[in-house]
Design a protein that fits this description.
Blueprint lengths: L23 H7 L7 H7 L3 E2 L5 E2 L2 H16 L1
Antiparallel strand pairs: 1-2
Length: 75
């Protein structure tokens, strides 16, 4: 007979909190502080295409994309 070992705080992997998908307007306002339009975000930033009309962005991915572009420009 095998005893099932349930995960505990010591054995369970720690997971990062899930991000909520955001709209282009939210990214433009909160990541770029209103310096770009929602249309610019739609055209340039990495996104998730859920359907033909529904497009969402993850703040962490957009911030990493911006940081990589800044690093590439500084080099």
């Amino acid at each position: 007979m095998t005893i099932l070992q349930l995960p505990t705080a010591r054995t369970a992997p720690t997971l990062a909190p899930l991000e909520h998908p955001r709209t282009a307007a939210w990214i433009a306002q909160h990541v770029f502080f209103g310096e770009v339009s929602a249309e610019w975000v739609l055209a340039h930033c990495p996104r998730e295409q859920y359907s033909r009309k529904v497009v969402r962005f993850y703040e962490g991915r957009v911030r990493a994309w911006v940081a990589n572009r800044q690093k590439a420009g500084a080099a």
